[in-house]
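Example 310, ligand glutathione.
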Amino acid sequence: MTQILLHHYDSSPFSEKVRICLGIKGLAWGAVDQPVIMPKPELLPLTGGYRKIPVMQLGADVYCDSVLIVRELEARFPAPSLHPSGTGGLAAAMSEWTDRAFFQASVAVIFAHVGDTIGADFIKDREKLSGAPFDTAAMKAAFPHMATQLRAHAALVTEQLADGRAFLGGAAPGLADANAFYNLWFVRSFYPPAAPLFEDLPGLADWYARVVALGHGTRREVSRAEALDAARAASPSDQPVPAGEAAASAGDLALVGHKVIVSATDYGRDPIAGTLVAASALRLVIRREDPDLGAINVHVPRLGFALAAG
Ligand SMILES: N[C@@H](CCC(=O)N[C@@H](CS)C(=O)NCC(=O)O)C(=O)O
């Protein structure tokens, strides 16, 4: 069976979301360590230009963005489900909250404190990624407000736990827990003195410990060279959209078979060029011919990505 390869780095919060989902499913996976800043010469041939982390690779199919990665994991490995209480649509939609407003509050709280200690290379890289200056003074000024925002996000999580349930959906863990967890993990890992901003909230500490205890599945380290070999040896799937995913719009379907360019619309907008080979309402699949690796399917989520004829 094709091995699951997760291109990540340990300190990446969006990767932690995926690692928790791998833990819930009890999957075995290969961890491919990627650099924290550009250049990423052994990632970009797989993605065609997308530089963000995490990226999942299954042979010659490459999945960009944690949202699409967890969707694909659920499609390929349905049991145990990431949606044990039957609220898959809501848990998926929840990432529009956790990956944006909740994440921004977490970033602000962390970098208001550690911003001054960050190396120049990292700062330059993240300025290029975001298209905005890395302004430590502004981060410090924003801290009092952002601290209240972070606590409010965490309080929403604990409201859901108020009836004493073990996990957000009930007795069994799911994507909702991974989504809610990873930002708090990010803050606790990078700036532990900020944990008191939320850890006194009723039920939070016990739930947090339960999510930690889920683990990350069975992880083994895989070299970047080995991951590239796996792509070379494989052929991209010719059924890249799982059954049951809602149909794409007529406009998107009209581009299937044509040269296109896709890019994220928030940050890290590096374009991916290729032929659109499949589309659903929730994903776009672009076929690329890499001179070294051969044919690759690059999958991106439809939400938060722009598609244009190329
Ligand atoms: N929407 C993306 C966001 C990914 C993201 O922002 N990842 C961070 C690391 S956690 C990143 O790529 N930072 C720049 C880098 O690592 O080069 C997702 O859900 O995967």
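Summary: The chain has a mean pLDDT of 97.
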